[in-house]
């Protein structure tokens, strides 16, 4: 036992010294950081997430109705491809891609990926395919032309692309890729001009390097064509649903399917139609509904994942009367079409998620602003959600045209969609004969899932979730932090892009004026609006995302920085947004409201607007005022116009009584130039009193995150003290969180609903960069006020962890001793101070395997003990409050 005693004591001494160093280390002194001023709060994070995820779309950014898919989920991300432009306006389009990371909740910045520009044609929109190895394939640029094709250089990577050989170098349109039997299949329409009636496919077995010849599966013959829906694949079936073009009119509804194994086509009754469906077979076997003279648009078919039964929705009608119809295969025949709702345009499109025959989620476009898209087949409006459980029922509006300010369309369910992102849709541009041609540009794309709209936090604005006096000196007192409000705005936060939860930017130009551009609409110490040289008329402005009802008082400052030639600075109170001009043909014919104009630094005039017709109120006031404040008030049926040179002393201008005025108004301010010289105006100091409708006067939730403070490993956040006011059950401090290295580690989520000071105790994980996040909540009409935040970082009580570590150390030492207690190896240890004995060496050699075996158990035990200690020192405990 001589060796055991000496070694055991030595190891205990070493362990004791080590633990003693830890136990006697002086505790860290408590350090408090207080954020109590406007500049303190400005140093934190007040980022605002927009409802859209990008705003660089053009025309019909996704042609998902027929060139599909445009969005695909893979490897934790949902990818979206679409058409956009780098400048406004542009005679060429670009292919963009972006992605949403489901784990981080972040949208990637859209990047242009095409190797060249596309002639401005929305039919050339891209489609996307992601192969099993993760490579992204994008097909684009085809409208009676070659199919251009690029492939990502690396799996799941959008930063680098390889230009591939065109799969089709003839006259192709609407490429739609899908996968079957380890091959890429590319379906498209072949032919152009008067012979665009062939639909076929090519396949690739080598990842797109080479393609098979074209196999035509549908040909109706003659000069008549067919329009197919997006592909729907179920097991080995490719359903193709189509309408038939006769003398320029699309009518009737058809469905058959292609067996992807045999290459033969079948009707739903199982009749084999061979490899090519012709006109006679289409009429005899594929016809679902003969619509007579009524047109058929917007077809989408989705199959029951369990049974393969197809369900179809489509628009059918003419002129401005259209029906969204639904039909399904009942096992023997197609059910009689039922009308889900009536709408105003044939191109109000749809998509669906079919879970079962009694669980279908429909994403449908319904009437938005009547008349703004020209009626007829031109589409776009409100994006609605419906549900089928045997009958269809309305579930809500995801985004309205009134809120977005442009018609919404083109819903697309991502391939392999996830619950938190189930649908992508976009604004759509007006047709070329529409009097609002610039609606074609700066289009927003949206996504929606189980948590609502999938916002993009990369878009910051001058209207954050929470505001200080810096953001909004008209509404927030110095040193306070409040939920963002729509009632006032000083446009103080410097960002690019005027779009936010309060405002939607817009621009308008004449059709021939291709050089005119708003470049851009910025917020930086005022809303700055720039335009380049043009010669036919340009309007740039912002329109409220909220509406106003009842009595109101609206004011805005217009500061002419660069006059430009023949300019206007306008304030409009209309029953719709996105326009604030007197230019002939610009206003939709059903527009109602009021218009106040400052013209070329020489005159001020007020107008009444009814049915899209402007009538001047009173006479023109000759005045040169720069900057000029414009103001419109309403008291019951009386509307009064004012102007001012300083925003405090007002001159009453004109007055109007209108008993038939709209009940709801939107606020718009804009500059218009009808000359050839560039101009710029700063709009600032917006102020509103009145009843605000959706989205409410205040944000209903908003967070502030403090700057990061460094802490040592044995330091932690020990307490947080808040100074606050205006707390109620409806306007509480909703949550307080502690962040370590920018990740939430502790949460106190009991609402604070009263009082002026609250102190909470914490024992957070030690070390790293510490922060506090405070979340405010409201009811849309009021806000709590946060006046100061104090975060105290002090010594963390780690006694329990150290005692546990010592117990682990003792167990480890005991295990090591047991490994050698009767082994002469300890003689070697003592031999360092003496001499080795032959017996010691012989015994060591004979028993070394047993000793090492026990030691192999002891070493992982020691590693585990230190791992447990590290985990306890770096992970959070329950908060104590």
Number of domains: 4
- Overall pLDDT level: 82
> Uncertain regions: pLDDT < 50 for 5+ in a row?
1-26, 370-377, 431-438, 529-535, 835-846, 874-881
Structural class assignment: mainly beta
Give the percentage of residues in beta strands: 35-45%
- Please compute the radius of gyration using only Cα atoms: 35 Å
CATH architecture descriptor name of the largest domain: 6 Propeller
**How would a crystallographer describe the biggest sheet?**
16 strands, antiparallel
Principal-axes shape call: flat
Q: So what's the oligomer here?
A: single chain
Number of helices: 7
Number of strands: 61
Task: Give the class-level CATH name of the largest domain.
Answer: Mainly Beta
Distance between the termini: 55 Å
The helix content is 10-25%
CATH level 3 topology of the largest domain: Neuraminidase
What does this 3D model show about the protein?
By secondary structure, the protein is mainly beta. It has four domains: 2-24 and 799-874, no CATH class; 31-49 and 700-795, Sandwich (Jelly Rolls); 54-270 and 289-449, Neuraminidase (6 Propeller), CATH 2.120.10; 486-692, Jelly Rolls (Sandwich). Helices cover 12% and strands 45% of the residues. The chain has seven helices and 61 strands. The protein has a 16-stranded antiparallel beta sheet that branches. Strands 9, 10, 11, 12, 13, 14, 15 and 16 form an eight-stranded antiparallel beta sheet that branches. Helix 1 (2-24) runs antiparallel to helix 5 (799-820), helix 1 packs across helix 6 (825-831) and helix 5 (799-820) packs antiparallel against helix 7 (838-874). The longest helix is centred in the last third of the chain and has 37 residues, at 838-874. The radius of gyration is 35 Å and the shape is flat.
């Amino acid at each position: 036992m001589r060796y055991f005693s000496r070694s055991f004591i030595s190891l205990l001494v070493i362990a004791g010294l080590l633990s003693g160093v830890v136990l006697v280390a002086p505790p860290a002194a408590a350090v408090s950081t207080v954020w109590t001023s406007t500049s303190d709060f400005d140093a934190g994070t007040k980022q605002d997430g927009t409802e859209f995820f990008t705003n660089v779309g053009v025309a019909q950014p996704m042609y998902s109705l027929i060139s599909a898919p445009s969005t695909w989920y893979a490897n934790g991300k949902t990818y979206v491809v679409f058409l956009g432009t780098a400048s406004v306006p542009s005679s060429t389009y670009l292919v963009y891609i972006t992605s949403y990371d489901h784990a981080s909740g972040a949208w990637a910045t859209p990047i242009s990926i095409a190797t060249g520009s596309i002639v401005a044609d929305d039919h050339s929109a891209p489609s996307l395919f992601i192969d099993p190895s993760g490579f992204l394939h994008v097909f684009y640029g085809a409208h009676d032309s070659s199919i251009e094709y690029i492939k990502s250089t690396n799996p799941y990577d959008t930063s680098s692309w390889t230009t591939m050989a065109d799969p089709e170098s003839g006259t192709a349109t609407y490429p739609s890729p899908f996968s079957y039997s380890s091959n890429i299949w590319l379906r498209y329409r072949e032919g152009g001009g008067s012979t665009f009636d062939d639909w076929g496919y090519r396949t690739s077995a080598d990842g797109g390097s080479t393609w098979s010849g074209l196999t035509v599966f549908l040909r109706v013959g003659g000069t008549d064509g067919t329009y197919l829906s997006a592909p729907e694949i179920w097991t080995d079936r490719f359903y193709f649903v189509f309408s038939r073009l006769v003398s320029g009119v699309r009518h009737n509804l058809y469905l058959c399917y292609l067996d992807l194994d045999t290459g033969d086509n079948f009707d739903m009754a199982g009749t084999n139609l061979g490899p090519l469906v012709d006109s006679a077979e289409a009429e005899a076997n594929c016809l679902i509904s003969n619509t007579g003279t009524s047109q058929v648009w917007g077809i989408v078919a989705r199959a029951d994942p369990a049974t393969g039964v197809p369900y179809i929705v489509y628009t059918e009608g003419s002129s401005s009367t259209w029906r969204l119809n639904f039909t399904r295969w009942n096992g023997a025949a197609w059910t009689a079409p039922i009308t889900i709702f009536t709408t105003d345009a044939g191109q109000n499109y749809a998509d669906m998620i079919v879970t079962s025959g009694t669980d279908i989620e429909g994403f449908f476009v319904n009437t938005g602003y009547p008349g703004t898209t020209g009626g007829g087949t031109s589409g776009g409006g409100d994006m609605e959600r419906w549900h089928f459980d045997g009958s269809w029922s309305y579930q809500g509006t995801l985004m309205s045209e009134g809120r977005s300010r442009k018609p919404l369309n083109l819903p697309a369910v991502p391939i392999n969609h996830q619950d938190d992102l189930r649908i992508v849709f976009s604004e759509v541009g007006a047709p070329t004969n529409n009097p609002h041609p610039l609606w074609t540009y700066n289009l927003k794309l949206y996504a929606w899932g189980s948590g609502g709209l999938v916002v993009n936090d990369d878009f910051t604005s001058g209207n954050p979730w929470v505001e200080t006096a810096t953001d909004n000196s008209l509404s927030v007192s110095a040193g306070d932090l409040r939920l963002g409000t729509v009632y006032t705005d000083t446009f103080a936060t410097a960002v690019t892009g005027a779009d936010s939860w309060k405002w939607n930017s817009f621009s308008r130009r004449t059709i021939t004026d291709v050089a005119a551009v708003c470049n851009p609409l910025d917020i930086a110490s005022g809303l700055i609006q720039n335009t380049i040289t043009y010669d036919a008329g340009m309007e740039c402005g912002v329109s409220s995302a909220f509406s106003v009802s009842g009595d109101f008082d609206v004011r805005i400052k217009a500061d002419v920085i660069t006059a430009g030639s023949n300019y206007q600075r306008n304030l409009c109170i209309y029953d719709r947004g996105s326009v604030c001009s007197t230019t002939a043909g610009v206003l939709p014919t059903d527009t109602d409201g009021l218009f106040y104009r400052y013209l070329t630094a020489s005159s001020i005039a007020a107008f009444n607007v009814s049915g899209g017709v402007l009538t001047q109120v009173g006479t023109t006031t000759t005045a040169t005022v720069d900057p000029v404040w414009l103001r419109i008030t309403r008291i019951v049926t009386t509307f009064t116009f004012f102007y001012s040179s300083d925003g405090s002393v007002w001159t009453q201008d004109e007055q109007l009584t209108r008993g038939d005025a709209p009940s709801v108004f939107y606020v718009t301010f804009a500059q218009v130039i009808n000359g050839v010289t560039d101009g710029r105006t700063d709009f600032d100091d917006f102020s509103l009193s009145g009843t605000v409708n959706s989205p409410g006067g205040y944000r209903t939730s908003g967070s502030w995150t403090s700057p990061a403070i460094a802490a040592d490993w044995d330091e932690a956040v020990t307490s947080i003290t808040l100074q606050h006011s205006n707390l109620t059950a409806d306007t509480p401090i909703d949550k307080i969180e502690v962040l370590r290295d920018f990740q939430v580690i502790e949460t106190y989520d009991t609402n604070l609903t009263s009082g002026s000071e609250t102190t909470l105790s914490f024992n957070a994980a030690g070390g790293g960069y510490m922060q506090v996040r405070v979340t405010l909540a409201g009811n849309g009409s009021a806000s709590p006020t946060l006046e100061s935040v104090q975060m105290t970082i002090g010594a963390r009580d780690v006694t329990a962890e150290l005692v546990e570590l010592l117990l682990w150390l003792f167990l480890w030492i005991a295990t090591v001793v047991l490994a050698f207690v009767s082994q002469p190896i300890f003689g070697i240890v003592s031999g360092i101070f003496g001499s080795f004995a032959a017996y010691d060496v012989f015994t060591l050699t004979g028993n070394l395997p047993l000793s090492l075996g026990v030691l192999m158990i002891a070493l992982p035990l020691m590693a585990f003990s230190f791992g447990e200690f590290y985990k306890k020192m770096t992970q959070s405990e329950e908060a104590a409050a």
